[in-house]
Amino acid sequence: MKTNLSSSKPSQLETDCLVVVTLDQGDKDKPSPTVESSDAAVRDASKDVISSGEVTAKLFEATLLHNPTGLKAKRLLLLGGGKAKTFSAAELRKLAGAAVRTLKGKNIHSFALVLPENGIAAADAVRAVIEGAFVGEFDPGYYKSDRKDKEKEKIETLTIVIPEKSGDPKALEGALQAGRIVAESQNFARDLINEPSNRMTPTIMAERAKKMAADVGLKCEVMDGDKIRQLKMGAFWGVSQGSDEPPALIVLRYEPQGAPKDVHLGLVGKGVTFDTGGISIKPADGMEKMKYDMAGAATMIGAMRAIALLKPKVKVTAIILATENMPSGKAQKPGDVQIAMSGKSIEIINTDAEGRLILADGLAYARQLGCTHLVDAATLTGAVVVALGYVNAGIFASTDDMYERFEKANKLAGEKMWRLPLDDEYKENLKSNIADMVNAGSRYGGAIFAAMFLKEFSEDTPWIHLDIAGTAWMEDNKPWIAKGPTGIALRSLVEFVKGWS
Ligand code: BES
Ligand code: MN
Ligand code: ZN
C-alpha cells in the first residue's frame, strides 16, 4: 500500500473514494450527525443522506454514495465515528482499518481519508490512520487457493487529507513514516503468529528472526539445545526435551551509538510454537489454536524490527525462547523437578504450565546479559481470559515506576491493557513439598499465580509482564481487523522503548 499526504481541498481530490468521518454531536438517544470536513462541497454532497435520517454516525456505520455531486471523487464513504465527545485517536485508528476492510474487494484501489478536525493533533491523527489502515489490510487466508485473486483486491494507494494549517508538513511526513514502520512491524509479527506450527517451528522462527535482523541491521544470535543445556537452562530444556523439533534461543541486539550507559532494556518473549500441554495434555477441542502460543515471541521480534528502524537512543536486547510443548517418551512428567538457570528448583505439577518455565530462564538470562529493566510478553494463562476476556491484556508490574512508564506508552499506542496485582500474600501458593516452588497451583487467580512465579526470576530487576492470552488472537472478524492474530502489545512496547531515549 502506497501512502501519501495531501493538503488539497477534499472536494478537489481525484480518487476512487473519498472517506469522511461522521460524528454524533448529541448526548441523548437521538443522533445528531455531522460530517467532519470544513469543505462545504463535501457537506453539501452528504446533505440529502444526512437529512434522510439514514446516517446516525454510530461507530463503523458505513454509507457509500456514488458520483457525489460537486466532488471529483468517484464515491463518498461516510464512516461513523460514534459520539463526538469521546472520539479519539484510538477510534480514528480503527476507522482507518474499517475503511480498508469495507472498500477492498469492491474494485476500489485507492481512497483518500479526510482527517477530522476535532482536536486530535494532526501528527497523532496521521499516525493513527496509517497504523489502522495497515492493521485492516492484513488478511490471514494464507493457504486459500484463491489467494492470488484476493491479492488483486488490495488497496494500492491511501491518501491522508490533512486540514489547512495543520502545522509543519515535514513533521507530518515523519509521523506517516513512523506509523508505517510500526504498522508494518505489527503485520510482520502477525505473519509469524498466523503460520501453523508445521510452518513455524522454533528453527523457522530463528531463520525469520535472522533474516529480519540482517535486513534492518540488528545483531542476531541463535543458540541450540546443547547451548541451552550448557547455560543450565533446566526449566527451558525441561519443556523442550519432549519434542523432536529442536528448540532455539534467539537473541536480538540493538546497540545504538550515544545511548545512556545505565539503561539496558530486556524484552523476553514466549515462543511456544505449539502447546499440546505435554503429558498434562490439553483436550482436542480448540487445541488447533495453540499455534499462536508463540505470539509473545513474535511481538518481541516485530518490536525489535520497529526499534531498529526508528532508532531510539537506548540499548535493547530481545530474548526469545522458542520450543514446542509435546508429550513423548522423552517428555517431562508431573512431579519432575527441574533446576532453573537461576539455581531455583521447580516441581512440575502440570506440564501445561510450560510458558512460565521457559520465561523463568529467559528472565534469568536477560539479567545475566546485564538488562536493567525487563518486559516479557506471553500467551501465558487461560485464567487471564477468564479475568479480562478478549478486550484487555493483563499487565503486571513489579514497580509503580515501570507501570507508569508502560501505561503512558500504552495510551499513546491505543492498546487496551489492565493492571492486575502482585501482592506478597499470593506467594503462599508457590510452595512445594520437595522443591523451591511448584509451577502450578489452584485454579483461582491463575494469571496472578503465573506472574508471581515469574517474579521469582525477575528478582530485583524492575519488570513488566504482559499476559496476552486473550488478546493475541481475534476470535471473530471485526470491522477494523480480521479474525486471527492481532499483534497486540507491539505498539505499546515500541512506545515504551522510545520513552527511554
Ligand atoms: N498457552 C497456554 C495459555 C493459553 C490459554 C493461551 C488460552 C492462549 C489461550 C498455557 O501454556 C497454559 O496451558 N496454561 C494453563 C496453565 C495451567 C495448567 C496452570 C492454563 O491456563 O490452563
Ligand atoms: Mn500450556
Ligand atoms: Zn502455553
Describe what is shown at a glance.
The protein is built from 14 helices and 20 strands. With 501 residues, the chain is α/β, with parallel strands linked by helices.
Which radius of gyration do the C-alpha atoms yield?
24 Å
Taking pLDDT < 50 over at least 5 consecutive residues as the criterion, the unreliable ranges are none
* Number of discrete helical segments: 14
End-to-end distance = 30 Å
Q: Could you say which small molecules are bound to this protein?
A: ligand BES, manganese (II) ion, zinc ion
What does the main sheet amount to?
8 strands, mixed
Strand % is 15-25%
Mean pLDDT: 97
Shape: elongated
Structural class assignment: alpha/beta
| Beta strand count | 20
Sequence of strands across the biggest β-sheet: 8-9-11-10-14-18-15-16
Percent of residues in helical segments?
25-40%
List the helices and strands and how they pair.
Blueprint: E1 2-6, E2 17-24, E3 33-35, H1 40-51, E4 62-66, E5 75-83, H2 89-103, E6 110-114, H3 122-137, H4 147-151, E7 157-161, H5 169-194, H6 202-216, E8 219-223, H7 225-230, H8 234-240, E9 248-254, E10 264-275, H9 295-310, E11 315-325, E12 337-339, E13 345-347, H10 355-368, E14 373-378, H11 383-388, E15 393-397, H12 400-413, E16 417-419, E17 437-438, H13 446-458, E18 463-467, E19 473-474, E20 484-485, H14 490-498
Parallel strand pairs: 1-7, 2-5, 2-6, 6-7, 10-11, 10-14, 13-17, 14-18, 15-16
Antiparallel strand pairs: 2-3, 4-5, 8-9, 9-11, 12-13, 15-18, 19-20
Helix pairs in contact: 2-3, 3-5, 5-9, 6-9, 8-10, 9-14, 10-13, 12-14
Polypeptide structure, described:
There is one protein chain. The protein is of the alpha/beta class and 501 residues long. The protein contains 14 helices and 20 strands. The strands form 4 sheets. It has an 8-stranded mixed beta sheet, with helices on both faces. Strands 1, 2, 3, 4, 5, 6 and 7 form a 7-stranded mixed beta sheet that branches. Strands 12-13-17 form a 3-stranded mixed beta sheet. Strand 12 (337-339) and strand 13 form a beta hairpin. Helix 9 crosses helix 14, helix 10 (355-368) runs parallel beside helix 13 (446-458) and helix 12 (400-413) crosses helix 14 (490-498). It is elongated. It binds ligand BES, manganese (II) ion and zinc ion. Residues 272, 275, 293, 354-355 line the site of zinc ion. The site of manganese (II) ion has 5 residues, from loops.
